[in-house]
């Protein structure tokens, strides 16, 4: 079906025409009307054209000769010159920008003109750096509105949380491997970059039996529907409510395809420019020299190498300065899953976890952790069966007993203490002094104003009884917005009071997120990457936290639970 694509292009043409200095009201209206007509057609406009030619298109309500010719051109060539010409003048992604609440074509263009914002990613970056509030006609309120609008749009665009998307992608890849039809296989796209939400899945395979692969995919139980299918590419709708692009590529192109389809787009654009500068051509098929020979296409490393670049983890490929550093071979050595020695945020059935202290400890040891901190909830979390001071005393002595029974793993005594409305902690200092360290977090009164919320958290930090500030913004991906808090002030207070910031790796949270980590990195603070486990299986979610840390460019020396237990305990005592 071409209808939705064509309708979108026509309405984007209308957007662009409306920006013209000359008054083109009538033309704008004509394109809008045509877009509406085509998007509402039951029959594919390409079919209508095939049966009745351009005359049949002109018979559709509101479509004149000029627009009909554009539609014909698109059906025949896949391009629309009117659209392409206007795009040269207005090279921005109107389609997604204008789907943000309150963002019309004019506003979008203004942001482009003054801040070079071309797409939603640029816009998000500008919002997070507070660059919009100073722009004439925008202000702080409208920056906040844009930020809210982006969140709403992303949720409604059905971007799926990584925690649901990645396991699905891994299942599909596993089944493809087991089919015996494919050679190499890989997950690409935002999923490989471990972005917190994913628009669609991208999977690459090599195979000499492309047709059979397509057939196999279309019959997978995960697949609801085939959206598009060609000789080497298939797009399917998955039952979990996500699209998935699967491409069959040549052996010699696998690395080039992986590099290309991992993205992100801005990263790719820069890498391709470097290739051009060096006299190469880089695309999804390979890296080609002047004679058209593919000199590096098999694997990603060789492509970056040939371009004089240092390869970086996919998580870092967001055009946040990594391309420039990579040319100087100065990519930070970011934290890896293998660096993680312990996990400092673990719940047991003493509050809302599902397993005993010993069960959690054994499961953690099995996946190679040397220590875990048992951090059950305090009493005001009554829905989570939080414990009061007296119950905690008993609980802590049970951790001691468990420690005596355990070998190869050490339990640390902790608690996830609620920061109450007034900034005080939900456990007595006496109880806290029995612990190795504490986590403090906010679970109630989430709607407080910014100033009050900031004060609340800073007060808690200044108490001297908070080791780690857990899931600092309290957002739940696609469900709950972050609390309104001045993070810069909080990060400063963390620095001043020696409080560690958590990167909660539970995939619904990923909190701090990548951008906030980037920001926090500039303070003298340490981080703790935890799983917030409530069952033994959750302990393996560490990889989400680590990838989030990578996306924030965090090096292992900044992460406290890469330390051995003795050094860590000494750090907590300070
Ligand atoms: P998503 O699906 O919205 O979560 O994000 P991605 O990054 O997975 O984006 P997607 O699925 O549209 O495309 C996968 C990758 O393909 C993307 O990260 C970079 C590459 N790519 C897509 N379109 C373009 C393009 O127009 N130019 C370049 N250079 N690369 C592109
Ligand atoms: Ca994708
Ligand atoms: Ca895709
Ligand atoms: Zn927790």
What average pLDDT do the residues reach? 94
Q: What is the CATH third-level topology name of the largest domain?
A: TIM Barrel
How much strand? 5-15%
| Strand adjacency order, main sheet | 11-12-13-14-15-16-17
Main sheet: strands, sense, barrel: 7 strands, parallel
The radius of gyration computed from the alpha-carbon positions, rounded to a whole number of angstroms, is 27 Å
Give the termini distance in whole angstroms: 65 Å
Hetero groups: 2'-deoxyguanosine-5'-triphosphate, calcium ion, zinc ion
- In CATH terms, the superfamily of the largest domain is Metal-dependent hydrolases
State the domain count. 4
How many helical elements? Answer: 24
Under CATH at level 1, the class of the largest domain stands as Alpha Beta
- SS class: alpha/beta
Which regions contain 5 or more consecutive residues with pLDDT less than 50? none
**CATH architecture label name of the largest domain:** Alpha-Beta Barrel
Question: What portion of residues is helical?
Answer: 40-55%
Summarize the structure in words.
The protein is α/β, with parallel strands linked by helices. The chain has four domains: 3-90, DNA polymerase beta, N-terminal domain-like (DNA polymerase, domain 1, Orthogonal Bundle); 160-249, Beta Polymerase, domain 2 (2-Layer Sandwich), CATH 3.30.460.10; 257-327, DNA polymerase, thumb domain (Beta Polymerase, domain 3), CATH 3.30.210; 337-573, TIM Barrel. The strands form four sheets. The chain has a seven-stranded parallel β-sheet. β6 and β7 (242-249) form a beta hairpin. α1 (3-17) runs antiparallel to α2. The chain starts with a helix and ends with a helix. The model has no long low-confidence stretch (mean pLDDT 94). The site of 2'-deoxyguanosine-5'-triphosphate (DGT) has 14 residues, from α11, β4, α13 and α14.
């Amino acid at each position: 079906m071409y209808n939705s694509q064509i309708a979108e292009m026509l309405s984007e043409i209308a957007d662009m025409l409306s920006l013209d200095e000359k008054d083109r009201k009538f033309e704008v209206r004509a394109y809008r009307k045509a877009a509406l007509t085509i998007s509402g057609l039951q029959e594919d406009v390409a079919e209508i054209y095939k049966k009745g030619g351009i005359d049949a298109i002109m018979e559709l309500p509101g479509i004149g000769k000029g627009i009909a010719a554009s539609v014909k051109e698109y059906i025949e060539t896949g391009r629309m010159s009117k659209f392409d010409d206007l795009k040269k003048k207005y090279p921005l992604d109107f389609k997604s920008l204008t789907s943000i609440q309150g963002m019309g074509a004019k506003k979008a263009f203004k942001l482009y003109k003054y801040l070079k914002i071309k797409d939603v990613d640029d816009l998000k970056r500008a919002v997070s750096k507070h660059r919009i509030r100073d722009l004439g006609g925008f202000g702080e309120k409208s920056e906040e509105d844009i930020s809210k609008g982006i969140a709403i749009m992303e949720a409604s665009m059905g971007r799926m949380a990584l925690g649901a998307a990645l396991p699905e992608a891994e299942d599909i890849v596993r089944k493809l491997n087991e089919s015996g039809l494919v050679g190499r296989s890989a997950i690409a796209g935002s999923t490989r970059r471990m972005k917190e939400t994913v628009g669609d899945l991208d999977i690459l395979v090599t195979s000499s039996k492309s047709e059979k692969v397509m057939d196999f995919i279309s019959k997978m139980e995960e697949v609801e529907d085939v959206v598009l299918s060609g000789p080497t590419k298939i797009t399917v709708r998955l039952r979990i409510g996500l699209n998935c692009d699967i491409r069959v590529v040549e052996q010699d192109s696998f690395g080039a395809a992986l590099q290309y389809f991992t993205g992100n787009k801005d990263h790719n654009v820069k890498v391709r420019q470097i290739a051009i500068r060096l006299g190469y051509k880089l695309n999804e098929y390979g890296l080609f020299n002047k004679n058209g020979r593919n000199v590096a296409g098999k694997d990603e490393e060789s492509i970056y190498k040939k371009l004089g670049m240092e390869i970086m983890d996919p998580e870092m490929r967001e055009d946040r300065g990594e391309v420039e550093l990579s040319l100087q071979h100065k990519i930070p050595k970011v934290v890896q899953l293998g660096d993680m020695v312990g996990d400092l945020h673990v719940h047991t059935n003493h509050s809302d976890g599902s397993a005993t202290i010993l069960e959690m400890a054994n499961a953690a040891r099995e996946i190679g952790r040397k220590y875990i901190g048992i951090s059950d909830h305090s009493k005001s979390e009554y829905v989570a069966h939080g414990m009061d001071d007296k119950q905690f005393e008993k609980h802590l002595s049970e951790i001691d007993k468990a420690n005596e029974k355990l070998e190869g793993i050490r339990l640390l005594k902790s608690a996830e203490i609620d920061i109450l409305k007034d900034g005080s902690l939900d456990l007595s200092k006496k109880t806290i002094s029995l612990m190795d360290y504490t986590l403090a977090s906010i679970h109630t009164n989430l709607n407080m104003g910014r100033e009050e919320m900031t004060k609340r958290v800073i007060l808690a930090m200044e108490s001297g009884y908070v080791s780690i500030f857990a899931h600092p913004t309290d957002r739940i991906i696609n469900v709950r917005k972050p609390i309104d808090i001045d993070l810069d002030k909080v990060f400063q207070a963390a620095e001043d009071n020696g409080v560690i910031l958590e990167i909660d790796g539970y995939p619904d949270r990923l909190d701090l997120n990548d951008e906030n980590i980037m920001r926090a990195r500039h303070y003298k603070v340490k981080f703790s990457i935890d799983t917030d486990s409530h069952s033994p299986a959750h302990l393996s979610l560490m990889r989400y936290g680590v990838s989030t840390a990578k996306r924030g460019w965090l090096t292992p020396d900044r992460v406290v639970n890469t330390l051995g237990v003795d050094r860590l305990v000494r750090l907590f005592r300070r």
